[in-house]
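Board notes (copied after class):
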Amino acid sequence: MALHIVDPPIGAYEAVRSVVTRMASTSAFRTPALRRTNPAALALSTPHRVATVPLDRIRDAGDLRSIVETTGWRFLLHDGERVVASIDAVIGTEGTYRFGHLTEGPFATGTEEAIRRAEALEVVRKHDFEPSLLLVPALYVVALWLRDRESSADLTMPIAPVPVELEAYEAIGAREFLTILRRLAERMPRQNEKGKSPLGG
C-alpha cells in the first residue's frame, strides 16, 4: 500500500492555486529556481497537512500526536518532473484558508526525497500511513510525519539539514523521535520557549 494522500480542503487548494496562477501569468516569481521555470508547466502535487510542535509542550509530552498543532496544508510545486518549491495555505478564521508561503530550498526538495524513501519501506507498503510535514521551529527540525491510520505506530523521517542527534531520511518511531526532541529541548533556555524560528520550505 502506498502512502495515503488525503484530498485537501477546496479552500486550501484554491488559496495556493490562485497565487501560482497569478504569479506565473505575470512573471512575478522572485526566487532563482522559479524564475527559470516554464510557467505553463508548473503543477501542484502531493497535498499534505502541516503540523507544528511548540517547544513548550515537548518536555512533558506523552506522545507526539497529543502535542502537534495542525496549521494548514502544503503542496509541492513541480516544473515538469522536477520539484522546484513548496507552497502552503494556512488556516485562518472560521476554518478559511489563506496563502502562507512560497518557498524554495532544501525542505521543498527534501520532502520529495523523504516521500520516495518512505514509499520504499516495507512497513509503509504493508500498512496505511498519511504523510504530513512536521515542524519544530525552535529546534530547527523538519520531518516527514507518517501518521499510521490503522494504529498509533507513527513514524518520522527527518528532512535535511538536521541536528547531529538525528539522521536525515532515516525512519524512526514517533516515540524515539520525541525522546530526541526532548533532549534537544533541554538545551534550550526556558525563557526562549515561546520563540519561533523561520523554518520553511
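Comment from the instructor: The chain has five helices and eight strands. Residues 10-188 form one domain.
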